[in-house]
Amino acid sequence: MDYPSVLVVDDEVDFLETLIKRFQKRNIDTTGVTSGEKALEMLDEKMFDIIILDVKMPGGMDGIEVLREIKRKQPLAEVLLLTGHASVETSIEGMKMGAFDYLLKPIKLEDLLIKLQEALDKKYAHDQKIRKARIKDLFRFPDRMLQEESEDKK
């Protein structure tokens, strides 16, 4: 596994701290926050590869609202929805909004790590496609690159 950047959003502090410690022991750059609002603030400060998001959080924004904003702010981040309260409707809504998967608590660390790797593989494959498309455009339209550079200098 590469060294992904992961944001964990969960109001259960013990679960959050345990997950952060276990991920960091595996060289996973992990940041944790306890609310959707704090998560959105973090998205303004740092780019994340994967976001593990609790669906049910008391007060403030719920996970689905946060997911909508995540996809607006960092559309290439893969989101794993995590909940202790199974709801078919919520899982379907989250998947339609672009979540990578929907997982139930309690979850074994090994199972979560497998899902994390699958999400990371998808993200890296998507990133690679974007890079290839940009390179292809550079060769097809080299003048466009020169125009963008001159506009950036202004």
Describe it:
Helix content is 56%, strand content 16%. It is built from 6 helices and 5 strands. A 5-stranded parallel beta sheet has the order 2-1-3-4-5, with helices on both faces.
* Number of β-strand runs: 5
Q: What percent of residues adopt helix (DSSP H or I)?
A: 55-70%
Share of β-strand residues? 15-25%
What is the element string, with H for helices and E for strands?
EHEHEHEHEHH
Q: Which radius of gyration do the C-alpha atoms yield? A: 18 Å
Q: How far is the first residue's CA from the last residue's CA?
A: 42 Å
Stretches with pLDDT under 50, minimum 5 residues:
none
The gross shape turns out to be elongated
- Per DSSP, the total helix count is 6
Strand order of the largest sheet: 2-1-3-4-5
The assigned structural class equals alpha/beta
The main pleated sheet reads as: 5 strands, parallel
The average pLDDT is: 89
Please give the structural blueprint.
Layout: E1 5-9, H1 13-25, E2 29-33, H2 36-45, E3 50-54, H3 63-73, E4 78-83, H4 88-96, E5 101-104, H5 109-140, H6 142-153
Parallel strand pairs: 1-2, 1-3, 3-4, 4-5
Helix pairs in contact: 2-3, 5-6
